[in-house]
């Protein structure tokens, strides 16, 4: 029985590393075992080193958020606020957990009679209970500052060494003499650091701020890990490095816009979001298909021809492009909804110019999973007594919150 199991594992291992699947015709794994300049050819065992590296990146992140990001957040005025706890009530908690987080008018009146509470008090309880599940602004600021720092640093590093590479300017050179293309030191560290960072994101997203695009981001991280690992083992690292650099160019701008939003610098947030949106659409919907997909689909077909793993590689890139289209749509929708619905600030009642007033991250926080209600907003509202002792306080809880907030907070987000 043990022999049969060993034979089955041997067959599985042989199928998994089949040369006919992974490599072009007339190329074997033995051909890539020989000496080469630099760091040699990519090997599957190199990928194992990313796990301790991912753990190291996660540890650096924890230290960065604690000793650098948090002091910066406090310095720009973001408070290390105490999480407000709502008044304990088993009946309301059961409705909140099992029925709905946004009770309608009929249910509110029924709960009011059952508990002998004022309707405004129940509305305020549900709103505070929803806010209680949201992370404080300080946590979100620290998380975004870490991502901003990493994306910016890795983009600068990648662009610096890619600038001098001939295949940065002529993508056909990604395929000349393929797969006999040895790794340089810069490319080796660049690739494995990117893969380690994706693994750290894959695990940390379960403890990070929960957003409504969690599933989409999970698919994105998973596809990214599979694509990076696959392209490394298959020695498609040249075109892979171009993909990294292209994506990192706009990612830091989104994190910078979120930082400005959390710090309540509205004009800066507006500017950064507009720049990010433009950069995202240009790089994802313009440069990516014309530069990357063109070379992986057509230039590679012409130079090396298709083979089984070639189809898988391009299939994964096309999945990535579909996600680009979805996110671009959501970015445009966010901006259009803010303009069409008039969600702009009109100080003094005058209609402003578009510049400096459109606030997609702040006024349209219902349309973006990255920008939930801030803890500072919650602090202002939780000072209103849950006892409903003042009708003005109760009105403040209702005004623009209970009617619209439940519709806006549940919308699909970017």
Description:
The chain is an all-alpha fold. It has a domain at 36-75 and 137-251 and 279-314. Helix content is 65%, strand content 0%. It contains 16 helices and no strands. It has helices spanning 2-16, 19-22, 50-75, 90-99, 105-115, 119-132, 137-162, 166-169, 185-204, 214-233, 237-262, 266-303, 308-340, 375-382, 391-398, 402-409. Helix 3 (50-75) crosses helix 7. The longest helix has 38 residues, at 266-303. It is elongated. Residues 343-358 and 362-414 have low confidence and may be disordered.
SSE map:
Elements: H1 2-16, H2 19-22, H3 50-75, H4 90-99, H5 105-115, H6 119-132, H7 137-162, H8 166-169, H9 185-204, H10 214-233, H11 237-262, H12 266-303, H13 308-340, H14 375-382, H15 391-398, H16 402-409
**What is the CA-based Rg, rounded?**
26 Å
| Main beta-sheet annotation | none
| Helix content percent band | 55-70%
Which overall shape is indicated by the principal axes computed on the Cα atoms? elongated
Counted by DSSP, the helix tally is 16
DNA-binding region: 94-137
Subcellular location: Endoplasmic reticulum membrane; Nucleus
Pathway: Sphingolipid metabolism; Lipid metabolism; sphingolipid metabolism
Domain TLC: 139-340
């Amino acid at each position: 029985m043990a022999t049969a199991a060993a034979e089955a594992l041997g067959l599985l291992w042989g199928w998994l590393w089949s040369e006919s699947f992974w490599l072009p015709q007339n190329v074997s794994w033995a051909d890539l075992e020989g000496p080469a300049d630099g760091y040699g050819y990519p090997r599957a065992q190199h990928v194992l080193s990313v796990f301790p590296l991912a753990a190291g990146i996660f540890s650096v992140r924890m230290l960065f958020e604690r000793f650098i990001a948090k002091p910066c957040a406090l310095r720009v005025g973001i408070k290390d606020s105490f999480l407000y706890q709502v008044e304990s009530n088993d009946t309301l908690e059961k409705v909140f957990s099992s029925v709905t987080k946004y009770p309608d008018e009929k249910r509110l009146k029924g709960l009011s009679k059952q508990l002998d509470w004022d309707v405004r008090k129940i509305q305020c309880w549900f709103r505070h209970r929803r806010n209680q599940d949201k992370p404080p602004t300080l946590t979100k600021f620290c998380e975004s500052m870490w991502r901003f720092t990493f994306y910016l640093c890795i983009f600068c590093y990648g662009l610096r060494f890619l600038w001098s590479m001939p295949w940065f300017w002529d993508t056909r050179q990604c395929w000349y003499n393929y797969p006999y293309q040895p790794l340089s030191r810069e490319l080796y560290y660049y690739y494995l650091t990117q893969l380690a960072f994706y693994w750290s994101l894959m695990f940390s997203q379960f403890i990070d701020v929960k957003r409504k695009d969690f599933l989409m981001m999970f698919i994105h991280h998973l596809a990214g890990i599979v694509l990076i690992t696959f392209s490394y083992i298959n020695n498609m690292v040249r075109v892979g490095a171009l993909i990294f650099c292209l994506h990192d160019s706009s990612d830091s701008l989104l994190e910078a816009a979120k930082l400005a939003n959390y710090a309540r610098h509205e004009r800066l947030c507006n500017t950064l979001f507009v720049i990010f949106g433009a950069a995202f659409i240009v790089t994802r919907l313009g440069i990516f298909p014309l530069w990357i997909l063109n070379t992986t689909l057509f230039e590679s077909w012409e130079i090396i021809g298709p083979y089984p793993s070639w189809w898988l590689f391009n299939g994964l890139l096309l999945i990535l492009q579909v996600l680009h289209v979805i996110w671009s749509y959501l970015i445009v929708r966010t901006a259009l909804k803010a303009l069409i619905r008039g969600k702009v600030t009109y100080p003094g009642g005058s209609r402003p110019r578009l510049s400096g007033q459109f606030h997609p991250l702040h006024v349209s926080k219902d349309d973006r999973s990255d920008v939930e209600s801030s803890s500072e907003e919650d602090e202002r509202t939780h000072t209103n007594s849950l006892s409903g002792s003042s009708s003005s306080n109760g009105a403040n809880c209702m005004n623009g919150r209970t009617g619209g907030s439940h519709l806006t907070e549940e919308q699909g987000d970017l």
